[in-house]
Here is the input.
Amino acid sequence: MATPLEGIRVLDWTFFQQGPVAASMLADMGADVIKIEDPVNGDPGRGMGQVAGQDTGLPGGRNFYFENNNRGKRSFVVDLKKEEGRQIFYKLVATTDVLLTNLRLGVAERLGAGYDTLVKYNPKLIFAHGTGYGPKGPDANEPSSDYAGLVRSGFMSMVGVTGDDPPPFTAGIVDQIGAIMLAYGTMTALLVRERTGEGQKVDCSLLGAMLQLQQLALFTHLMGRGAPRVGRTQARNPLWNHYKCGDGQWMALSCLQPDRYWQAFCAILGLDDLAKDPRMKDRATRTEHAPEIVARADKVFLTKPRDHWLQEFKKRDVPSALLNTLNDLASDPQYIANNYILDFYHPAAEKNLKYPGIPIELSKTPGKIQGPAPEFGEHTEAIMLELGYTWEDIGGFKERGVIG
Amino acid sequence: MPLPLEGYRVIDWTIFQQGPVCGAMLADMGADVIKLEDPVNGDPGRTMARAQGQETELPGGRNAYFENNNRGKRSLTLDLKQKRGREIFFKLVATSDVVLQNFRKGVADKLGVGYKDCVKYNPKLIFANGTGFGAAGPEAFEPSSDYAGMARSGMMTLVGESGKPPPPFAPGFADQMGAIMLAYGIVMALLVRERTGVGQEVDGSLLGSMTQLEQLMIAFSLLGRPMTRTDRTKAGSPLWNHYLCSDGKWVAISCLQPDRYWAGFSKAVGREEWIGDPRYQERMARQQHSAELITALDKIFPTKPREEWLEILRANAVVCGPLNYLEDLPNDPQMTDNGFIVDFDHAAIGRTIKIPGIPIQLSKTPGKVRGPAPEFGENTEEILLSLGYTWDDLGQLREGKVI
Here is the structure.
């Protein structure tokens, strides 16, 4: 069977992360994704030398910020500031299903490539726009970033103990969810077009995307039912908490119905006195004494390695979980069995690299990683030939700096 | 124009959050989502007394956890353990486009309502499974939860300082993410079906979904370059950091290209002498002196309230913004102007309430919040009548506790 989006073409006029990842998700699902880049600068993500203090250089002159965000695409270099470049672009638009961009609001219009212009060349076009703050509101035109989305959405204030300073985050979560929701919106628009023949504009912003991620917490808050977050030593339910084990590794207990598992918990940890203690008989009374229970459990967990505890809890069917670091994922059999992390042969590295896989499994039309990120302008010529230009034309355009 | 998924029917046989939110997302986009519940217990989310310390009780006997996760659905109660219940179920399957479920792997098959059973009644059916740990692997059959998804995916180690214990999180992110990716998979499967006529099974899990959320960080880590987290006082770039203002509010400076903004920033904070200072000339030099710059800035920012700083910084073209808390969001015009938080008239709660809106805007076929969560079994009768059952049948089925 084909991949889900086989035969669908996406013009990916994006840079940095939010836009590029949305398009690479569509590439994973089989779309022909053509990355449009400026001949002089290209996507600045290509030159991103450092991310969060880490050097991004890879063997073969690659850069893994760009590499991850652009896997499976073709690169087409054209100068949209030149009239000839715009004409080529319009020709490409006429052959495409989706134009995806994360330029600031108004930039595409200034370059003669806004939605209203492009639908003249392709009335059924889907124009998917990723922004920071949404198409309306006082800050609609402001530049944004992963960090800006993190602070503006309130997400930063939802981690750690209430009242403490907002904690540091690893980079990239907000751009990632911005990409995911933009891909979701694009998919929805493709479905509508398939059913009705209508193309349209899709807008998704970092703020909007975070809204979906935070939905339950935000709703609870809007209903006036928000509660402060406490540290793990103060957890209200000791069976919904994480513990450090003897080998320095962490594990979590995740019992939504703690009464059902209380006796097993005490038996495993050898807390026989607590098992009989009338103060601990049900969830409500235990909540009052939770810090005492957590303190006792903390001591016991430290006496044995994590594997021991995980086996014990599993034997008695108590919901528990590994608390992984990212370094653990590549050796977690659950990740490997589901292809969430897989081996991908990278031609520039000339070997298999471990890659994040595809998170959704379709039984008949699964997605797959279509290829590495393209070299700058790697596919310009092939795509020009597809559009009907001759080698002579191509030579001329190159000389005039229209394509690269 | 219609809503994007108008005309599609989804049987939402789900519990708690991951499955229900997925169904609610499809309802937001216009699908007719029928929440199928067991006549005795229903979705345990209905009686979720507390979500991690948060009181969930709402006016009108509603519950915030259930209400959010089930907005815009209809409720049908049906006992799938009875043969007559399954007959009704299959009749419904024949009229549906999607069956969505998040029971443990194997439960649907054991009841005789798995994909293989359903597809006999509807060969083009899309059958979507939301699991914790994926369809394969040693723990495919294990129970899971939001917390397990957070812990197992590594997410808890991506926040806070490296080396410190994993911090507490507000609940619900992994389940929410699981719902989002499952909805993405379903819409994709619907698109495939429109193009090829083929229905199929869709599997989404908490782990897989979190992998998509963490993709960039995972990719780095897999290549042996894990990103580290440091305290804000040790941030590598003072122009990519947050500062506490005199009114106790935080402002975040987020300049990806700090060299471009250094002069404007120095002017804004009243330190024009920094502009020509060779120690701060460019990014790498500044990085070496970042700690001393942040120490200085931590004394400068507490001299003015945030609003004033935002104005001054923006006047100097510095990329910046407020660091919001959840309680700030309803008052942030960016949230309301874009419909990310909307007013909603809830009959049972009995007043105009503010709720999270729709995160994605489609220009011709936008989604919308279509209704509150249904009462338990609220729509059982109308749905059965639409399947051709008579009032007599309904009486009998009710007596037999099938519905």
Notes: The domain at 240-317 of chain A is CATH 3.30.1540 (formyl-coa transferase, domain 3). Chain A has two domains: 9-215+359-399, 240-317. Residues 238 and 342 of chain A are 36 Å apart (CA to CA).
